[in-house]
Write a structure and sequence with these properties.
The chain is α+β, with helices and mostly antiparallel strands. The protein has three domains: 107 residues, no CATH class; 153 residues, no CATH class; 103 residues, no CATH class. The protein is 43% helix and 21% strand. It has 14 helices and 13 strands. Strands 1, 2, 3, 4, 5, 6, 7, 8, 9, 10, 11, 12 and 13 form a 13-stranded mixed sheet that branches. The longest helix is centred in the N-terminal third of the chain and has 30 residues.
Length: 429
Amino acid sequence: MPKPIICLSEQLNQYMESFRHCFSKRQWKYFVIVLLGLIECEERKTLTGMLRVIGEQINISGLSRFLNKYHWSTDEVSETWTNRFRQRMRPLVKAEHKRLRAEQVKGRGRPKATVVIGYMIFDDSVHKKPKGRKMEGLGKHYSHSEGKVVTGHSMFAGLYVLLGCQCPLKPRIYRSKNDCELGGIPFLSKIDMAKKEIENFHPIEGTHTHILTDTWYLCKKLIKAAKKRGWDFTGGLKKNRIMRLIKADRSRELVTLSQYATRLAPEDWQVVNWPSQQGGHKCYAHIINTWIRKLGPTLLLVTCKDPYASQKSFRFWGSTVSDMDAQTFVDTLAIRWNIETLFEYDKDLLGSDHYQLMSAEAILRFWTLISCLLCFLDEQRSFMKSPNLTYGEIRRIIQMDHMERFIHWIIDQFNSGISAEQLFLRLAL
């Protein structure tokens, strides 16, 4: 049943009000319709699909112009939700510092400074579009879910995680160098996009930033940018990376990470718990400070499921933090999974790959509005003080609130003298 805008929940309405300065009066109405449509629509999140659940006299051409032609800034929208996140987190950061100071063991001398860590995570996700031949920004990208190269759009995204709360960064479209030259726009690689985020991001006061990535983004260029800002960097490593091995006689040997791992004896491993929402699972880890080509001094972590198995599945990670133990390293790596969950919400819950938009700017705007809604869902999870609730469950709670308001609105319409036929024409057309 299509619902009019008047049935918006109080929380969603207050959240949207903070974005009024980003839009004109007409544009703001379309902004509300898109976010409400993403909340209510259970089918594919195309423009037509979202309009079917909105009880307003809006046509698809107006909504299309809002995403394609109207003048509004995705930077301004993303900065607004980021500022809301900062305002929400500042008192929590102060409270966490106070808690950490209270837990310190009292002794002689000045107590150690407490540290609250915020994690900045980067990754990219492919939106498959096999039939979108005329869409801007299309390219050939490797899809891990498909296990092959597919035609589609590559979304570069970032996520800031602090004290269990999450703030999506503004998404970007990665376009190939040839595509950028044809379109007359400057080319940025994924590494350059990550570097730009590192240079421009302003963390919350009183926090220390730790960057988490997969194997694609762990490189000297990004590590240098992170160190320039005094941040830490941790990410995955490919097995063919070269490391320096110092033997018992102090001689040095250059070996690949996989070669080093195969030489490890069973007693070189220790048991750690890999965290997860299901309680975690046991795995084996080996940790060592070493030197890795093109990275420099690195804390290396090697994991496997069973060191006694004949065929071991090794995985490798590196960090600029040299004093972490194996369990702390694993706990830090587990936080990176938040961005994989974010991509799942993007696609499965809010349909970030359901668009049928032609211009790259419209696609980027659609992704930006989805990230804006994800920030709202995280706010609600924080206010409900239920960290185990998924965004899907929070969305369902909001839908129930809308339904309750919708029923009261229908009763008010009948009490005011509107006939069933008039109400039907308003909602059905």
